[in-house]
Specification:
The chain is α/β, with parallel strands linked by helices. It has twelve helices and ten strands. The strands form two sheets. Strands 6-5-4-3-2-1-8-7 form an eight-stranded parallel β-sheet. Strands 9-10 form a two-stranded antiparallel ribbon. The relative contact order is 0.11.
């Protein structure tokens, strides 16, 4: 699992549709998530596990993740036993609500890694925060994660969160401002990478509304967005990537500051803007992000 700030898009595909997995890999998403949870009826769970296992092996070294069922669902251990193999590099765990959930999935993955002869701690976890309890405990959850030798990243799931809260999701997403803010701040406070935002589900054909929703998430500190249709991938990749102009300006900031610093000056103005250490560090992050997306930059 990427944890370097380049996970802009993660595209869901039902495990019951193996043909869509192949197509999704060509959609341009940074990660494709084969879904064993909400997209799969209970009667089809066993069949879906086998499909996911085959696809992970078929597309080894590709950008694939599997969303397993929640720890208390009765399906989680069966999912892990079926899908974990050396071709898999990460899972998505839904309904994470406590540090205990983090410790439990960590132990289950340790057991699976040993059984499969995989490096210990090699499987990453995208932990889905999608309830009032999860939002309330998010700092504790990822403070626990930081103590473990495993890559953990947060994602927000607004569908189950809104169900838990008894609210409706609006087009402007005003009711999601608090959970988004809390998740983003908590992840950074716990020393984790920025989280991944919830899918936009209001109207799959309204790409302008999708863009507006993605910009809101980016402004709050999210690094990318979950997607539920291939048409959402391109706009989200664009929004969560720095533009050529932003990269060019960031380089100018760094060059001007380094020159100024070498002369014993720790702050300066560039194009009428005040430049100091936080601005320079932000510029360096933009440059690194651009290079991670396109090494030619």
């Amino acid at each position: 699992m990427k944890t370097t700030g380049t996970l802009r898009t993660a595209l869901f595909v039902p495990a019951t549709r193996p043909d869509r997995v192949d197509k999704a890999l060509g959609a341009g998403a940074d990660v494709v998530i084969i879904d064993l949870e909400d997209a799969v009826a209970h009667a089809l769970k066993s069949e879906a596990r086998e499909t996911a296992r085959k696809k992970v092996k078929e597309h080894a070294q590709r950008k694939l993740m599997v969303r397993v069922n929640a720890l208390g669902s009765g399906h989680n251990q069966k999912d892990l036993d079926s899908i974990i193999n050396p071709s898999l590099n990460s899972i998505m765990l839904p309904k994470v609500e406590s540090g205990e959930h983090i410790r439990e999935i960590h132990q289950r993955l340790l057991d699976a890694e040993r059984n499969c002869g995989m490096p210990i701690g090699s499987l990453g976890v995208l932990a889905l925060i999608e309830s009032a309890r999860g939002v309330q405990n998010v700092f504790r959850i990822f403070s626990e994660a930081i103590t473990l030798d495993r890559a953990f990243l947060a994602a927000f799931g607004a569908a189950d969160y809104s169900l838990d809260m008894g609210i409706n999701i609006s087009r402007d997403g005003a009711e999601l401002h608090y959970p988004r803010s809390r998740i983003a701040v908590a992840c950074r406070a716990a020393g984790k990478e920025p989280p991944i935002d919830t899918p936009f589900m209001i109207d799959l054909k309204d790409l302008d509304a999708l863009r507006a929703d993605a910009r809101r998430a980016k402004q709050l500190g999210f690094q990318g967005k979950l997607c539920i249709h291939p048409s959402q991938v391109g706009p989200c990749n664009e929004i969560f990537s720095p533009t050529a102009e932003e990269i060019s300006y960031a380089r100018r900031v760094v060059e001007a500051f380094e020159k100024s610093e070498s002369e014993g000056i720790g702050a300066l103005q560039l194009d009428g803007k005040f430049i100091d250490y936080p601005v320079v560090e932000r510029s360096r992050r933009i440059i690194r992000l651009g290079a991670s997306i396109d090494p030619a930059q």
